[in-house]
Amino acid sequence: MSHGSASDGAASPNLTPLLDVVMQLLMFFMMCVNFVNEQINTEIKLPESQSAKAMDKAETEVLFVNIKPYREADYKDRSAEFQERMKAEFQPGAPCILVNRARDDKERKEDKDPLPFKLGQLKFWLRQQKEDFQKNNPNSKDLPTIILRADKDTEYQYIYQIMNMCKVEGYKRLKVRATTKSVKQEG
């Protein structure tokens, strides 16, 4: 009895489930990238450091505080309302603190512009974030980590004042962001 040659019944794998999994992974990574991009401010040009390290993945509760000197030209791609508010509140070169809106901000859910603060206004925002976190996480002993993203043109005295303000409000974990400086090899 002959059952035919081995090449007649060659099995081909069904790739449909594999393609489904690849598509789901692609969608997952696209959503995660958008989530991370919403937390940072692209107008900030971070300083370089040889000892800069990537953010720890275990840190899930973080607050990003961006600081830079105010320059009108940096906000041309923002809304006209935001540009006018910045012109009215800040002098050129004055320190400007920018924090991103909370995801559940009912006031302006569609607004992509960050919230601008002067140095004195930041203390109120930090206190409000602390109260909200403690109300939503009653069993947590630690407050979120503050990630300070200071523009390389920011004077150190303002960075120090913000760090001190965070400590006074009870935030114990503070980190300053920088970009990795590439070490040039001589040869």
What does it look like?
The protein has one domain. The longest helix has 24 residues, at 16-39. The chain is built from four helices and seven strands. Strands 4-3-2-5-6 form a five-stranded mixed beta sheet. Helix 4 links the parallel strand 5 and strand 6 (174-176). Helices cover 35% and strands 16% of the residues.
The separation of the N and C termini measures 75 Å
How many domains in all? 1
Kindly provide the radius of gyration, computed on alpha-carbon positions and rounded to a whole number of angstroms: 24 Å
- The low-confidence runs, each spanning 5 or more residues with pLDDT under 50, are none
Strand content: 15-25%
What's the quick description here?
The protein is of the alpha/beta class and 187 residues long. Helices cover 35% and strands 16% of the residues.
